Amino acid sequence: MGNALFKLNEGKEVLECKVQVETEMLSPIDLAASWRAHQEYFQPSRVRGTHDVTINPGLEGRAKNGFASGLELDLDKYVVPTPNMGSGVVYAASLTENPRSLLQTGSSSNNDTTKDILHNSTKGDSSLNHYVNTMKSTIGGHASSLEEQRAMFVDRGVGSPNFARPTMETFSMSNFKLDSESKGMPAAEGAVAAAAVADQMYGPKEDRKLAIVLVGLPARGKTFTAAKLTRYLRWLGHETKHFNVGKYRRLKHGTNQTADFFRGDNREGVEARNEVAALAMEDMLSWMQEGGQVGIFDATNSTRIRRNMLMKMAEGKCKIIFLETLCNDQDVLERNIRLKVQQSPDYAEQTDFEAGVQDFKERLTYYEKVYEPVEEGSYIKMIDMVSGKGGQLKINDISGYLPGRIVFFLVNCHLTPRPILLTRHGESMDNVRGRIGGDSSLSEAGELYSRKLASFVEKRLKSERTASIWTSTLQRTILTAHPIIGFPKIQWRALDEINAGVCDGMTYDEIKKSKPEEYESRRKDKLRYRYPRGESYLDVIQRLEPVIIELERQRAPVVVIAHQAVLRALYAYFADKPLEEVPNIEIPLHTIIEIQMGVAGVQEKRYKLMDAIHPTAGL
Ligand SMILES: Nc1ncnc2c1ncn2[C@@H]1O[C@H](COP(=O)(O)OP(=O)(O)OP(=O)(O)O)[C@@H](O)[C@H]1O
Ligand SMILES: O=P(O)(O)OC[C@H]1O[C@](O)(CO)[C@@H](O)[C@@H]1O
Ligand 1: residues whose CB is within 6 Å? Predict the structure, then answer.
């Protein structure tokens, strides 16, 4: 227990302040340092008491601040290069997993189960058996024990050395093996972590491994949905991989199959397609043996016999949930087909676009002849979900933590094009001083940025009267939003900056000097490191999940005015960045990152409205 009495002589008035902190880590020196920082920079908040939601505030913003920002009329003058998402659209299937056995030489395994299953599902064939023999990489026998170890404890942040890790002695459940040395801790936190431990304790092995098997006619958004779901689950810390059978087919049989290859009475074509489907399934199951948790199996899987083959292969190894995409909107389908012919490697060499469209439509008719909608097992049917209104999900036999979250995510997704504008608050007084956290107001440069931002929003969203402005509850974001008028403003506690705990208000140098072990822990593992009485990046990601769901659900533009760590986490979701990279993503001050959500997936554009005046700012 730490007690301190602070006296402040403000002229005649003496302010006394008793501080009592329950801590074994905050020394009186620390307390004095943070009190001094607080005193030195404390300014009463200028926004305290503003409502969490303000709808269409009056013109005071314009009258008071005007637009002394003098933005150019042509916003493209502010466009700066995007670091990596690029403006070109990459074909989603190309980003999926590569076939193991097609890329590894010499690896073979006689997987009798697969041979029998394939034989029964396609009446056997010599080339088929030969092919099966070249299948699949070896399965690491050690994997299951490694996999067992991975899921047992969740690293609640490598934080202060004072938080002892549980040891075998303190952990009574005999069936857990503590592996405190390896970094094999799940990169999960919060709800995900709790579920992981619960699954480990109670869930049968099959439930802990989940295969989402896509079903649908071509151009129904299977790959699009598979890629989006993969991105969401990875962002939450679930080991997730996307396996696309079309990619396997192209690698094994080339990219110039005409529609005939897909005829239901083309025996060779059917066998070839089943072969690569089985190969992809083998690879996915092998990966799960090595620790993978959620496999997204992306193919048409258009017949019961095919789906039965997959269920037999998965028996005892993972739970299968079919995810069927259905679309009855002919305009959407026509657009999809044209997008496919534009983007798919199947038509990369097709010089006559319309001929390509005709060939794809012919392929479609062959699939329609044999298509059997899903009626079996656990399934989710997405029906006309494109626009975000009027569509629906039909589910059957869905239970458990992860399937429930997947359903909730999918029911909120749609393809209505809209921009999401991400920007940090204007430069703050603490940015200038290099101090972290806090609730400081804006510097002069930050106030100038707030006016430029208002002008930018006015121009960029002038035709969007249903847009909204989201801020955190900290004054530097609320003040940045203030000059924007004509749009509802919403304060999210979840958008508050990462909580630096006992380091709040300090500079990185002060932390390095007064708390070297904390500084070093964070340097070593910035993703999982949790400030004492504060947060880790994994904590921030978990608290941002409802924000992501709401951003997916919105059909109108949203301007998110937040903070460096928070925007790193949000950007990582849209840019599908690996979790390990999140804590170091560049999110410069006075720059707007425009995420364009639409029918071709996620694209990015950046506008830099001005430089940060102070070189240390934006740390
Ligand atoms: N739920 C959906 N319903 C209808 N169209 C969708 C849906 N989701 C995405 N789309 C649109 O469908 C287009 C094609 O999607 P995608 O390439 O994923 O089709 P696919 O079903 O995987 O086709 P194929 O089986 O030929 O690979 C996407 O560019 C997207 O605009
Ligand atoms: O994780 P990092 O790199 O310390 O960045 C987060 C920090 O960035 C800031 O938003 C600005 O320095 C701090 O308030 C916050 O602690």
Answer: 216, 218-225, 246, 300, 325, 327, 332, 336, 339-340, 382, 385-386, 415, 599-600
- Domain 419-608 coded CATH 3.40.50.1240: yes
Distance CA 255, CA 349 (A): 9
Report, as ranges of residue numbers, the positions in the chain whose pLDDT lies below 50: 23-24, 59-68, 86-87, 105-110, 123-186, 616, 618-619
Asked whether 435 and 37 are in contact (CB, 8 A), the reply is: yes
* Ordered DSSP codes for 219-256: TSSHHHHHHHHHHHHHHTT--EEEEEHHHHHHHHH-S-
- The domain covering 206-412 belongs, at the CATH homologous superfamily level, to P-loop containing nucleotide triphosphate hydrolases (3.40.50.300)
Cα–Cα dist 452/53, whole Å: 23
323 bridge partner residues: 214, 380
- Give nearest CA residue, ligand 2 atom 13: 436
Segments making up each domain of the chain, as ranges: 206-412, 419-608
Evaluate whether 206-412 and 419-608 have a shared fold: yes
How much distance in Å is there from the Cα of 451 to the middle of ligand 2?
Answer: 24
* ipTM (interface pTM): 0.94
- Cα dist from 59 to 99, 426, 487, whole Å: 59, 21, 11
Closest Cα to residue 101, out of 285, 238, 231, 261?
285
pLDDT of residue 346: 85
Give the per-residue pLDDT at 194.
76
Instruction: Tell me the C-alpha distance between 448 and 451, whole Å.
Output: 5
Best CA proximity match to 446, nearest among 418, 478, 417: 478
Predicted local distance difference test score (pLDDT) of residue 1: 54
